[in-house]
Design goal:
mainly alpha, 5 helices, single chain
Length: 132
């Protein structure tokens, strides 16, 4: 693993998460039983989500913002555009069967699953069956 440091001389957040994960998996987990072992696995899963969010979060948000700008025909923040999209759907200004909306929602769901649960079988199947 390449060591990436911030300009302040400390390791990057991704390395800190990896060190915590390695300690919890390699040292702590083998010593635990029962509920404590289960709770440690939950913490390890949360760390995995955080690591994946760090790795792809900005790219996912940027892609979502671009799709929303195209769909709505205007600029704005992610929150503003998501709120407007919801309102336009409620007001029936955008049909729920609109191909552009469905493509956006599909891409959004895939990017969220990639962060939250990349091992989910439906996620893996969706990756292999998606149209180019």
């Amino acid at each position: 693993m390449a060591v990436v440091h911030h300009s302040h001389g400390r390791p990057a957040a991704s390395l800190l998460f990896a060190a915590v994960r390695q300690h919890l998996e390699g040292t702590v987990q083998p010593a635990l039983q029962g509920a404590a072992a289960y709770q440690n696995r939950v913490v390890l899963n949360l760390l995995g989500i955080l690591e994946r969010e760090l790795a792809s979060g900005l790219a996912n948000e940027s892609a979502e913002l671009g799709r929303l700008q195209t769909l709505l025909g205007r600029d704005g923040t992610l929150d503003e555009l998501n709120s407007e999209l919801s309102q336009r759907i409620r007001d029936r200004e955008i049909d729920i069967a609109d191909p552009q909306l469905l493509a956006h929602l599909d891409a959004l769901a895939i990017s969220m699953l990639a962060v939250d649960n990349p091992g989910y079988s439906s996620f893996r199947r969706a990756l292999t069956t998606r149209a180019p």
